[in-house]
Amino acid sequence: PAPTAEARLRRAAARESATLLDRYDATSAAHPALAAALAPLREAVAQHMRAFGGTPAPAPGTDAGPDAAESSDADDSPDTPESPDKPNAPVRVPEDAGAALRALADAERAAADRRTAALLDAAPETARLLASVAAAGASHGYLLTELLPEVA
Fold this sequence. Notes:
This protein has 152 residues and is mostly helical.
């Protein structure tokens, strides 16, 4: 059977979180001095992905551990293994750490805006989740810009 509109919406949100995870990982790899500051925000994005039914890969350089295989109870479709959640395009990270943080903040804000727009088409439970994750993304965008003076 074809996935429902709600399942497609959740899958799209999980893919968007996967894209953000890739950005966090690429930024941390390109600017190792930022990795510790980015780790809590990256983990929140991984939790968002799980909430939408995706299965995030562990952060680079971390032990997968027993919880790594845990998936969300929101996973109601058969095609939520890692492959559909992981985008294929490599992430370009600016060489300047400040520009890299700004790019990551912009990506968080853009994702928050798209999730806010998706509220109109979502069922109540998914709408609440989208709203919560959009608010978190907006706060991540703010927190990332607050890191800028530390890297200047």
